[in-house]
Every structure is written in structure tokens, then in C-alpha cells.
Amino acid sequence: MKSRGWKYGVATSALVIVVSATAANAASGDAIEARLRVLEAEIAKLRREARQALGLPTARDRHAIVIGTIARLFPNKGYEQLIDIMQRAVAMQPDLHFLWVGDGSHRGAYEADLSRRGLRERVTITGLLPPTRMPQVLAAMDILAHASQWEGLPRAVVQALLMERPAVAFAIDGAPEVVQSGQTGFTVPLGDHEGFARALVALAPDEERRQAMGREGRRPGQRSREGIFLDGGAPDAGAERIGDRHARTHRRAQPRCLAPPARSPGESRAPRRRACPRRT
Fold first, then answer.
1. Is the pTM of the predicted complex or chain greater than 0.85?
2. Confidence at 243, pLDDT banded by 50, 70, 90
3. How large is the angle between the packed helices 79-92 and 107-116, nearest 10 degrees?
4. For 205-220, what is each residue's pLDDT tens digit?
5. Less Cβ around it within 10 Å: N or C end of the chain?
6. CA trace torsion 278, 252, 242, 172 (10° rounding)
7. What is the DSSP secondary-structure string of 5-64?
8. pLDDT higher than threshold 80 for residue 28
């Protein structure tokens, strides 16, 4: 902040975006307060715009806390369990709205169940969206609820954490690897619907806590050396690293050159080449 490079950059920039009020205060001596923008304000603007585009409640509306789920509307993705969790959560915290991102053969059955429980008006279902829309839908959420009953590494949770959204998930398979319970969200035992609902309700009214968990959740993605997470939100770089690692692993897994088979009686004693598979 105090380096000449910082001052020169500030002095010659038309707009300076900083990540916090502290950073803005550090630059105040450079008499450019009118050109400083705090990043939190920009994030809030993106959130408002995303909610308006999706027809979601804004901060002034009832049900202003948006809990999102990204998954096919299909068994094993946890919607049967999630609907019960939603009913429990709404009973404890009425200011909740739910965003379901996905589609599937069980959509009609889930919508009927929501209607029977008096929850349908609280749920926005987007249908199937292209991957390019994921940043928008994640920006519109406050919390990700991942109720899948079987999962390898939950990609939706990784994406949410990269967008600084805390997640609540069942503690199965790869979920605890990305959701550090109490730090980047909460995990609860599989089948504990009451515990899942209470975790959502604990985060819902506490914006400061949600933001702190979101920032902590993004940090492993920024420092990962393995490319499993996309550093700094740069998917091309992360995907390229993953592709390079896959190619190296594939080459190492190929069989080595094989010794030629034993000579048959009377076969020429001329030298023979070893059998080596072509490398790809």
C-alpha cells in the first residue's frame, strides 16, 4: 500500500477497486477518495442484479435469505430429504427462500410435495441452465444446501466456496473434504434432517458469519497446488493444469517396452527389436 508502485497506480487509474474499507482507508492520504470503490459494494450490486434476473426476493422482501441447491431433480440428489429439511427450517426461520437449479424426471413429484407442505411459493426452480450461468445463480445465493445422498467430490460445493458462499452438506464421501464444519459451513450426519435445518437457520440471519465462512472457503481454492480447485476463479488455468496432470499420469501408466519372445527352433539369430507401445 505504501510503495511507490501503489501510489503511481492509484494516481494514474480512472477507477480503483479495493477489497475492504481498511484498504480504502490506507489509500485515503492519496486524495483519491472519490475514485475508490469498496469491493463489497460491487459484490452486493452483483447479488441484487442476479436476484432480479432470476425473480428472487431482494433484501427488502420477505423470505430474503436465499438458500440454493444445484443438482438434477432426481433420487439420490437428496430432494426428498431436502424438502423435509426446508419445512423444519422455515418453522424456525420464516425469512427463507429456496433456489433450485436443475431439472429432471421427478420435478412434478417434488413440486406436488412442496405444494402439499405449503412451501411451493418459497421455491424458485430455474430448470436446466448452462454452466455459464452458474456464477450468476451462485451470486444470488446466501447459502448452498447440498443434500445429496451419494457423492464423490461435490462440484457444486466447490463452486459455491469459490464464490464465497458457505455450504451445508451431509458428512458423506467427499463432502467433508471441501466443507470444513464450523469454518466454511457445516456438515451433519447423513439422515439428520433436524441438524441440517438447524445449521441453515444458524447461518441465515448472520450475514457477517456467512461472509467470514465464505472467505475461508475460497482460500483453499486460491492456494491449491494440485489444480483440483480453480485458482483465483480462473477456470482455464485450472483446467489446463488438470489436463497436464492427466496426460502425465496416462503416460506413466502405459506399459514399458517388452522383451521379444523366445526364439523358436531354427529361427534366425538376427537381432530383434523390443516391442514398445506407441506413446500418446
1. no
2. very low
3. 30
4. 998 999 899 888 887 5
5. C
6. 130
7. HHHHHHHH-S-EEESSHHHHHHTGGGS-GGGEEEHHHHHHHHHHHHHHHHT---TTSSS-
8. no
